[in-house]
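Collaborator request log, item 7. Partner lab (contact: R.S.) asked for a structural prediction of Phosphomannomutase/phosphoglucomutase to inform their binding assays.
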Amino acid sequence: MLNPFMFKANDIRGVTEGSEPEWDEQGAYALGGAFVSVFGLAGQKIVLGRDMRLSGPRMSAAFVEAVLDAGTDVVDVGLASTDELWFASGHLGLPGVMFTASHNPGKYNGIKFCHPGARPIVPAELVTIAELATAGPAEPAEVRGTRSELDVLGAYAAHLHALVDLTGIRPLRVVADAGNGMAGHTLPAVFPGGAGAPPVEIIGLYTDPDGSFPNHPANPLEPENLVDAQAAVREHGADLALVFDGDADRCFIIDERGEVVNPSGVTALIACRELDRHAGSTVVVNNITSRSVAEVVAEHGGTTVVTKVGHTFVKAAMAEHDAVFGGEHSAHYYFREFWGADTGMLAALHVMAAAGATDAPLSELVTGFARYAASGELNSTVSDPGAVIEAVAAAFADRGETDRLDGLMVNGPDWWVNVRRSNTEPLLRLNVEARTEEQMAALRDEALAIIRTAGPQH
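Returned to partner:
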């Protein structure tokens, strides 16, 4: 079973639990054979990991069986965060497969693929995998592959600390909300405590990996999922908080007041650090990142490249332009020194290094990057997304420059409005930014009224 709607622009995600699953073990088996066939991996080797989702063992096992039947060896790293799997692909020089549905509810599972060195596959390759898998399982190879196990967690943590040295910072108290996701697996390795460890006290929230997500959904894009970390910062007098998504490739930052640091502000902060080390380099952002980032990058002598939303697009741009860093509004952060892949933990280390290098609170460090008022991402479910986008385009037609790089973007002199379809969910997403809070609110409300009245919702 492979529902065609589970194939997204960047990865595969579909329901595996309940009475109406969108894919099952037979579908996972078909995908394993298709993956080997599309990339010509027979007789070669891949690395595979999975997150804590309840369906992970059975779904990944079926996929592995198909890969072995196709004559390909599997290096199984077991439970892993997605960025740990990217590390394994880069460290070992192997194609990678990660079983995860990121921030989606527990009934979902999915797959993220990469080429050796954590290089992204492109959407056309994912389409080919889907077409081949839905045609049925492949014929077994004459020689079956072999499966081995490898623990890469220690090497992953050592690599991160080689990139950001925290040993000389002032002592920090940091709340870390793993959301019962894979950050609960990686945090103890990155912050082991004891002699010689960085002077960071971690106050953990929901650090037991549990695919049923018993405390709150592991989706930090939703404000209600940040509340516990915000309260813990205030309760413990912490310097900051980290809030990870389910597979821990994203990390939201909360300052010492319990206020969320806009991911564009985090992008600007890390961009400054990377440009200080690699003068004149390129920084990649997506189409709805704050204009403040490009302004900060230019002030630090760098160049900004804008791409579509989504990790495959950002990674491709990172490789094309040899960019030192990339950031998205969704709190995905990409690093040249991490094979151009996204890692929430490395971004967290950069923020801690910046905060620990001064006595000033984090809120002061990012003040200069908050140059515009942002709406945040507002989601609507509508019957005809294309028609709704055109209705917004018509309403704003004579008020700014329009581009279609990623949905509809209307650029005014000191504001912009973006409406686009989600890459991963059946939603229409609205983002607005303007110089003042009042201007942003007016544009936001106008666009949102059009979206929610232009066609029936479902």
